[in-house]
Specification:
Rossmann fold, alpha/beta, eight-stranded mixed β-sheet, 29% helix
Length: 208
């Protein structure tokens, strides 16, 4: 006659001798945290009294969905878009572009750029439409890409809503290598060039 108690004891002994890895192998492996980048911030700005500068509301920039998040966007051919693996921007692209322009205006000292707030009357309003903000592998995926920034802008009079001017800025800087850090540096330089261009254009309109 089979002794059920002995069978149960043997089964328990077998379970206790199973390797620990058999119990934990179903758990997901830990993933490395992505590297987070941000555009550079000017080290210093001209300390021009605000009373002596024109003030412009910098509206939140519009952008396609692919350029609206924190992805560091790459393009293998100028048409298809993908995201750099293991790296992101610290803030969504539109937020960074608006901050970069406000910083550039402060650095140049001719205009004060502000974020719109209810109840504050500001004579001018700037709208930006971000069309491109990516690194293009225009010479093939084995060579360093070209960082591109392309933004359409309109400046209007806040009170009359009259269009004062339109402008398109397009800049590009070749990365020093095909690494993410080199691409970020090139994107940062292309952005700085674009912001300087916009600052000069705005100064010409509101400070004739």
């Amino acid at each position: 006659m089979i002794d059920k108690s002995k069978i149960l004891a043997c089964a328990l002994l077998l379970l206790t001798t199973l390797p620990l890895t058999a119990c934990v192998s179903v758990l997901p492996e830990a993933k490395a945290a992505p590297t987070v980048y941000r555009l550079s911030v000017p080290q210093s700005a001209n300390e021009t009294p605000v009373a002596n500068t024109k003030v412009i509301n910098i509206e939140f920039p519009q952008a396609p969905r692919a350029l609206s998040g924190t992805d560091i966007v790459l393009s293998p051919d100028g048409r298809r878009l993908t995201a750099a693996a293991g790296a992101t921007w610290a803030e969504p692209v539109p937020n960074q572009i608006r901050s970069a322009l406000i910083d550039a205006l402060a650095r140049d000292g001719q205009i004060t750029g502000v974020i719109p707030k209810g109840g504050r009357r500001v004579p001018y309003r700037l709208n930006m439409d971000v069309r491109r903000f990516e690194a293009v592998f225009d010479n093939g995926e084995e060579l360093a890409p070209n960082a591109v920034v392309h933004i359409n802008l309109t400046l209007t009079d806040t009170n009359s809503r009259q269009l004062i001017g339109t402008h398109t800025v397009s800049t590009n800087v070749r990365a020093g290598a095909k690494t993410v850090s080199a691409i970020v540096d090139a994107q940062d330089s292309a952005t700085d060039k674009a912001m300087s261009d916009i600052s000069a254009w705005l100064s010409g309109l509101v400070n004739p």
